[in-house]
Structure formats: C-alpha cells, structure tokens
Structure prediction request, 658 residues.
Amino acid sequence: MFYRTHLLFVKDDNSIDKGLQEVLRVLNEELVKYGLEKEIGVLQTGSLGYISKGVHFVVYPDNLLYTKITQEDIPLIVQEHFLKGRPVKRLCESAKRDVEFAYSERIVLKNSGKIDPESIDEYIAVDGYQALGKAFEMGREATLQEIKKSNLRGRGGAGFPTGIKMEMTANQSEKQKYIVVNADEGESGTFKDRLIMEGDPHKLLEGMVIAGFVVRADTGYIYIRGEYSLCVQRLKIAIEQAHNYGLLGKNILGSGFDFDVIIKLGAGSYVCGEETALLNSLEGGRGNPRFKPPYPGERGLWNKPTVINNVETLTNIPAIVEKGGEWFAGIGTPESCGTKVYTILGEVNNPGLIEVPMGTTLREIISKYGGGLKADKKFKAALVGGAAGMFLPERLLDIKMDFENLSKESAVLGSGAILILSEDADILRILTSILKFFLHESCGKCSACRIGYKMLVTLLDKIVSGEGKSEDIDKMVEIANVMRVTSFCALGQSSIMPIGSIIKYFKGDFKRFTGE
Amino acid sequence: MNKYLPEKENILEILHLVQNANPKNFLSKEDLAEVANYLHLPYNQVYSVASFYSMFSLKPRGKFVIKVCQSPHCVVNGSDNLLDFLKKRVKKNPEISLEECQCLGVCGNSPVVLVNDKIYGDMDKEKLEKLLKNLEGGKNVL
Prediction:
C-alpha cells in the first residue's frame, strides 16, 4: 500500500510508560474518522535515543518530530497537520535539527528509530544481511583480517581487540565452539545494549552469524537480563524471521555453514556481566566468576573455545565487513577506532542515548549532545563508566573520551554511562548508593569483596551521619586498595574507582562531614 | 516444566516458570525438590542456584511485588525517600511485597518503580499512594 505520510512512533519502555498504547488507539480512531487510514501509515520503531520526550514520533517526509504527546493532542494534530497540512508548531521541537542530529554519524544505531524492528524485510531493505553474504564470499580468513584491520575493541569495558579475540578462538583445534553475547546489562544508568537490541535486533543476529562463521562456531547464546521483556520479545521475533529466510539454521545462504541462536534469560545478578560468571550461569550454576587463565577463547562454555562479546561490539561487525576495516579504523582516534554509544543522564537538558566518534571530548558530549546543564547550573562532576567508574571534575572536561586518554587519568569508559552532576549534587549520597549496590551484588566467593563492601558501607554511613573522623576516610581508601589487589574479579577490584576519585577531586565533600 | 529439556543449562528458565506458577510468587521447598527431581540434580544444587539470583524468592510473596530502583540516578531523584515511604506504608498488606532493585534502564523516567512486570516512571508520593490504592483493589494500574 502507498501512504503519502508515515508516522514513526518510538516504542520503548519510556514511551509505553507515558501512554503510547492509548495514543495509538486514539490516533487510529481519528484517522478512521477522517478517512485518512489509507493515506497515513503508522509504524512502530526502536529508540531515537531520546528518553525524556515521552510519547514521540517522526513525520515523514516532512521530517518533523512531535514530542510529549498525550491522547488529548491527537485530534488536533490529525485535523491540523494530516488533514489541513499545517503542523502543530507548539508540539514540535525545533524538529528538523533534532531529527538530523539523532541520525548523525551512526554505525550501531544507524537503523534504530528508522525501521520497524519487528520486520526483517525492513532490515534487508536498508542493506541488512548484505555483510553476511559478503563474508561468505570473502571466506573466513579474509573476513577475520578485515575485523583485525578495523582495530575494533570490545565495548563491554575492557577494550580488548575483538579481532585478536576471534583469532584466538578460530585457531583452536576443538570442533565444538560457541559465540556468546553478553547482554546482561546491569550497570547503573546503562541501557545502551537494550535500546540497540530493541531498535535493530537483526543487526545483532547478523554480527553473531559472521562471528560464528569466522571462528567455526555452530551455536550462539544471547545471555540477556531477565527484566528486559520487550527486548526478548523482539529478539525472538527476529530469530524466527531469520530462520524463515534461511539466514539462521542449516546451510545459511547456501554456504554450507550452520548456525543457531538461543536466548537465555538471566535472573537478576550483576556479577553475571563478568564473562566467566556469565558462563557459569549459562551452564546452569551460580554466577561465580572463574579463574583466568584459561581464557574463554580457549576454554569457555562447557570448556569449549568461546568468543564472548558485548552487544555493541557485535553490532559493529556487519558495517566493518561491508565497508572494510580501513573505513572503520578511520573513525575515532588511532588507538580507539569507530564510534561509542553513551547513555547520558543526570542534570542535562537532553538525557538519552548517543553515538559519537571515539575521542569526542566530555565537554562536547555534555554541551552539544546533552544540551548543556539544566537551568544553566554549574557543572560539578561527571560519573563516567557507571557505578564502577570515576567522578571526573570540571578541570577534566576537555578529556578525550577513548580508551587511552581515559586510562591516563586512570579512568575507564566502562559501560558508557555518563551521569552529570550539578553544583547542588550530594556526591556522598551517590557513593552510598553505589557501595550498597556492590554490597548487594557481591557474589560472596571471595572475602575481600564480600567483607570489604560491608566495611565500606558501614564506614561511609558513620561519616555521613556526622560521627566520622578523618581517619575513617583514610581507612576507606586503605580497604578499597586492599580490595583492588586481592579481589577475585572486577566487582571487588573497582571499589577504589569511585572512592579514590572523590578523595582526589572532591575531598571537600568528605570533610564537610568530618568537620575539618 | 517439560517445555524445557531436563538439562542443567535450563535451570534458570525452569525456575522462572515454576516461580511464576506458584500462587505465592516464590519457590517453595516442594518446588525446588520437584525441579531437582526433573533435572536429576541434588536438592542442594538447585537450592544454591535459586538462592543466588535476586529474581527468585525463597519466601512467600504477595500477588504484587513492588521493586524500587536504588541505582544512583534514581537515588538522585529521590527514590531512597520513596523506599522509606513504602516501607512504612505496605507493611500490613500480605498481598503486596516490597523489594529493592537495581537499574532497569528506564532512567529517562526516574525514579522508577516496577510492579510485577509493569514499569511506572516519574514516581512521587502522591502517585505511589494512588498506585497502592489500585493495587489494594487488585489492579496493577495507575
């Protein structure tokens, strides 16, 4: 059917919470009332990256963005805009610039908000699954070389080169190998993987099949948070469609290569985001981390060679195969190539999901993409990298956000979460919530982490209640340092990050309580 | 349960299924024994897995489980106060259980509260009060 106008509604948990279903119901009624249902097509897409714009939709070909729409607004929009051709300016947000901005320089999020994530045809229409065909044509070795050339580094936090990881597994002589996708996104303030999968689930599947082809794996697991129901639903649809099109299953595209994808639900455990804990959980056990080495690339799931990658890492693969490693390596900085997806939150005007080239400064991210601080408040700190990240002060605003520049300040990209705090923020209240979180999520396997967090929370409570002394602050640092050296996995090792950065840059916040 | 093959790797899915089928919304000793029997595993192994993950409860819960996000971004927006408020407010009702949870990824609408699988954003005390009234009347709506 030919529609003169398309309306693309963003369907995610934010918009559902704000009444998306009711808006769509009223819209449908209104369109039928005016006989417009054959002229105006209504589609549902994934996130554009906005998280505080309520129910919002884009009008094509006008390229207008309506935001914070309620069901009461719909009759007016239908009458004025769709019937008479006069956009309701009051409900449009300087739309053109916004829409263009949302679509700029995207690799991972290229299709999110543009296509219907529940339709494989739309993904194929935007050149989806072409990279897979190209990989089969080029062969395993050449595909691997492109990925290595791209210098893509793992987006889960550690930044290990993806090509080298795949090569390690590809070189194993074992017959049975696995691909595992780490979609156990639990880091506070992080929802990038969820929106990537909700917006473009086929891209992840394509990345998985290519990775499986390169290393000769025949099964891929997506380990996803139990709470992500919309995401699971869309992935299941995508898997079924890919099966029907012969893009999953036996003899994919006539290449003789077999690959299947299985979704596994987590059950609420932060530590399962650690790759070896995730493997234990996949096998049906407690999510305790394993000792490394051997690394999963040699002995992973059921002791077979396994490539574990973050969602964002794998969704970069199709574009790399399609456009070549050199193209990808030309984006970003020499050591951190490509783009990075961030979730920017806190006291900024435009919180949400953004994808920018590696090496973009924190200042630019806040002012250009985050829209600056709310009510022109003064910047105090940015918590970069999630709960296990660092509080960065104003003087580091011009830091380039990439692996090597952040590590110079001993900070990390981590999960890509950026929480912006203004002058009125209470940093110690946030630290309390971070430490309580880790205390709750500690798996209990090693004493350093299990007991360490308990001691840290107790000490911080004492300080915040005004009974602490400056020795207590020193003690916290000492404990955190011991945990860094002696904990089994990153969950315990990283307590020093938030604590250390507060001591280094915001000691005044502590001293306020100890009265010195 | 026989939707899943009796293999250890399916234990989390099976436990989810069994918990959802339990009218008290938890995993009883009998439930765990049944799962152990189905998977040919010792009881203690099933218990050790069930007790590890926070989405599984080993104690009876109400028909509605309210989870309040306690991650930094929600705390900045006052979810710690909401939790204190709820702790006092829901004590007496056996049909409503209260839990803390971590980031649900709906940070745009923080502070966020989850009731069973329904997300409620931008919560404050007035909205919570209204939600609780509806829950007490048996409806998970705001």
